[in-house]
Design goal:
By secondary structure, the protein is of the alpha+beta class. 26% of the residues lie in helices and 14% in strands. It starts with a strand and ends with a helix. Belongs to the complex I 75 kDa subunit family.
Length: 272
């Protein structure tokens, strides 16, 4: 182990090769660090600041574990009060402009921001002003954009440049005004462009082919009861004692109704 570096993660000893990031050292012993911008196949960006940890000896403020290399006998604390407070603040600022549309978001239930908010965020916010609005872009035939949900992790930008080999995506402006898009309105037409949908940790980039659709406003299909004799008999046989007789008498009247036990029960309940 002479060529390995000894690190202490929450007082647990771990040996890793030189140049290993603190985040990777933590994962080696099963300590999960929350993150948004980090991905093992992409370059380090350090945008989201969600992976903050406390380091000793080191600066007095939490450090981004994805961009911090390990040092000999470094002590890392992933759940100290300082770290918890910092993560809660990061979540609060990410939600500052993020729309609260989880029930209609295609990423709902599989959203990293949703999960991290439940695990590390607060149950209230100090900010109630209007949220920022961002114009959506047309990225081509596969990717649907709702850019007000974007948290500027730049995973899509780095994937396009480093993996797909097309520098079609980029960032413009700075700070709160930052936007991610294509240059001069160009479509993102790479044959592997759909992969950014899986890389996006929120619902900013979703699939056009599998997006949610509005409820179909069509009347419930119904058949004349004279054509549903067998189905009605089966349904009547499952009704409580006394109800089949009432339902049978009502079914003799010409009417339209859906087939099934629920329909027969409803008909029986209509009896005086």
């Amino acid at each position: 182990m002479s060529n390995l570096v000894r690190v202490f993660v929450n007082d647990n000893e771990v040996f890793v090769p030189p140049g290993t990031s603190v985040l990777e050292a933590c994962e080696k012993i099963g300590v999960q660090i929350p993150r948004f911008c980090y991905h093992p196949e992409l370059s380090i960006a350090g945008n989201c600041r969600m992976c903050l940890v406390e380091i000793s000896p080191g600066p007095p403020k939490p450090q981004a574990s994805c961009a911090m290399p390990v040092m000999k006998d470094m002590k890392v604390f992933t759940n100290s009060p300082l770290v918890k407070k910092a993560r809660e603040a990061v979540i609060e600022f990410l939600l500052l402009n993020h729309p609260l549309d989880c029930p209609i978001c295609d990423q709902g239930g599989e959203c990293d921001l949703q999960d991290q908010t439940m695990n590390f965020g607060s149950d209230r916010s100090r900010f109630y002003q209007f949220k920022r609005g961002v114009e959506d872009h047309n990225y081509g035939p596969f990717v649907k954009t709702i850019m007000t949900r974007c948290i500027h992790c730049t995973r899509c930008v780095r994937y396009a440049d480093e993996i797909a080999g097309v520098a079609d995506l980029g960032t413009t402006n700075r700070g709160q005004a930052t936007e991610i898009g294509t240059y001069i309105g160009k479509a993102f037409e790479s044959e592997v462009s759909g992969n950014v949908i899986d890389l996006c940790p929120v619902g900013a980039l979703t699939s056009k082919s599998y997006k949610f659709t509005p409820a179909i406003k069509a009347p419930t299909s119904a058949l004349p009861l004279k054509n549903t004799t067998q189905a009605s008999r089966r349904a009547l046989s499952q009704l409580p004692k006394g109800m089949p007789r009432m339902a049978s008498s009502l079914m003799k009247k010409p009417m339209m109704a859906p087939v099934g036990l629920a329909a027969a029960t409803a008909v029986a309940m209509m009896a005086p």
